[in-house]
User: Fold this.
Amino acid sequence: MEMQLIKHRLIGKLILLVVLIAAVSSCSTVGYYYQAVSGHLDLVSKERPIDEVLTDTDTTDELKQKLNLARQAREFATIQLSLPDNDSYKTYADLERPYVVWNVIATPAYSIKPKTWCFMIVGCLSYRGYFEKQKALDLASELKNEGLDVQVSGASAYSTLGYFDDPLLNTMMAHNDASLVGIIFHELAHQIIYIDGDTAFNEAFATAVEQEGLHRWFKSQSDLAKYNEYLSHKQSKHDFYQMLKNTRQSLQLAFEQAEDEQQKQSAKQTIYQQLQLDYKQWREQTQFYGYDQWMQRDLNNAHLALVATYQDLVPSFLNLLATVEGDLPTFYKRVAELGDMDKELRDKQLAAYKTQRLGMR
Assistant:
């Protein structure tokens, strides 16, 4: 009865949100918000208490293991990481699809700066998310017709930034144990600090909390083997993103130096061919095949627009954490203070933390 009452209140809030948006927005914007609200309501309608799922005879042993792990990680997040103590990730929803949302990212053909969209509550974002894949593909087609580079990527996790209690999803269960625990830490971090219009800041902060949280999680589990496996994967991920970052820098320089569009296109083609060669060589050296599927895409600037920049500020946040001797509540306070700064000043401060190299393990 209590869960039903909470859901009714949630529906009332969402309906009110749509009404308010309709009063101040264009028809196309209202349509976008409507799909977001209806998508979230569909998600909520599938929500079940974890205990109920665990006792269901149809629940597989694999899912039970994942849910028990998630429940332990959720408790750890509050007690050991000072992350929000609410009902997020204490329920489970099976959406019967591989991703919860599909994000559309776009850039000009000869720039790596992503197009942004601005929304109520969350501010401006470098992507636009849809609960239905076809709607994402439709927008992607429109943007391609405008001459933009576009990518559509599925996301397995989802956050309302603390406005509502988010459930665990079937889309999260395909991840290995370390990734599942990390996702919970990452999404809860978004609930404490989220700066409107600064995607790189928000994602780097949440990633830093995720990494520090996993370090403490594995330490508490006394599982050195799994922690070393995580570190190895983390290093491979870092190396891959560095490769993408180098490609971004090469593209930016080539676009600035080219005299006309033909030169830009030729340079762009050459640089992406070089990326494929670099990846092939790195793959042979490391015997790490985790990004084969990603690299098999028809890559363009939109694929590099966010994936590399999300990593750029992570060392800054880890170094800031080191300056407060690992005290997370103090760290969150300092990050919130950064968030209150003007963006230019905030970026300068983060750049200064990055050079200190205090937080590297």
